[in-house]
Amino acid sequence: MILLFKIGFLSIGWLDIIDILAVSFFMYQLYKLMHGSVAIKIFLGVLSLYLFYLVVKSAQMELLASILGQFMSVGVLATVILFQQEIRKFLLVIGKTTSFKSGENFFSSFSLWKKQGGSDHNVTPIIEAVKAMSGTSTGALIVFTRDSELKFYVDSGDLIDAEISNRLLLSIFNKYSPLHDGAVIIHKDRIRAARCILPVSENDNLPAQFGLRHRAAVGMSEITDTLILIVSEETGEMSIAENGIVSKNLSGLEIRASINTYLSSVPEPEAENNEPNEEKKKEADAEAIIAYTEKSA
Fold it and tell me: In the CATH scheme, what is the homologous superfamily, with its name and number, of domain 124-296?
């Protein structure tokens, strides 16, 4: 080991520095993973008990040390049982950053190795549909996945595998449709499935006004590399959930930019480039809302 410096009787080398930084990074990620959940309180309780055990053992209090030692001996098993949800989430976070699909380089999963894609994604029908649903306060939950097919979640719903269509999305989320209760999953510019069941977030710090739809969107974005579009049934407000964070009260242009950025990592062109067509777009949106309202009635 290459010696860097000495502090009293301690010899510090480069490997020690790397070791300390690696452990610090791991502990910080662990804290971020458990922050806001009940698990952080359990973790602090277990840590306090372990520190108390070390003090008792050092003080040579044999009876108390032997009792606490019995708890410590099953520490690994108890940790797995108590933190099974957090361990599962941690492994999913690690797993979603790597890709083993055929023909892909392992390092392409990391942001520094990702290639910039094109911006030819068909998002206009989606924007038109969510604007119409927002105008009529029709609830909607749409999951966009860039890399993974999300087969587990697709299988929980009804397979559709159809081209993206404004009318199809409006039909799915119509409150009289048998497919409206659940999420739509979109992969490679196709509607893969509808009525899909998403995991609900266990984060206790979410706003009280978040209903099951928003909590499911946050939960899905926490454990998968997806972007989720939410239309509130109560207020008609459009929101985006990504990496466990919800951006609320977004406009159509902001929704379009978020989806394009997520799918292709290419910034959306500035809004002024589309100024000549703004009036036509507003008229088309108004007509779509009126037509959808008449059909719902």
Answer: DNA integrity scanning protein, DisA, N-terminal domain (3.40.1700.10)
